Amino acid sequence: MPDFVEVDAKKYAFNVKLASGSDVLLTLPNAVLLEGWSYTVVVRGFKTPPDGSDKVLSAELIVD
Question: Distances from the Cα of 28 to the Cαs of 20, 41, 43, in angstroms?
């Protein structure tokens, strides 16, 4: 798991990509990060869910 990275407090759009590629699979738009807070972006699901699964790719910004 990567270390925390300090960023400026502002609005961001997070792009989710495969580690081995440059194609954007999902965007988490309008993520407003406030000064002094800690956040984690959680990505779950499948790019292409297997048969019988409804676990589509999704992302969520969580306040730590």
Answer: 20, 9, 10
Does a structural domain hold residue 17? yes
Q: Per the domain annotation, does 33 fall within a domain? A: yes
Mind listing the pLDDT tens digit for each residue in 12-57?
999 999 889 899 999 999 999 999 999 999 999 998 889 999 999 9
| Global pTM value | 0.76
Q: Which long-range contacts (CB under 8 A, 24 or more apart) does 9-18 make?
A: 9/33, 9/34, 9/35, 9/36, 14/41, 14/59, 14/61, 16/43, 16/57, 16/59, 18/47
- Establish if 3 belongs to a structural domain: no
Domain with 30 in it: 11-63
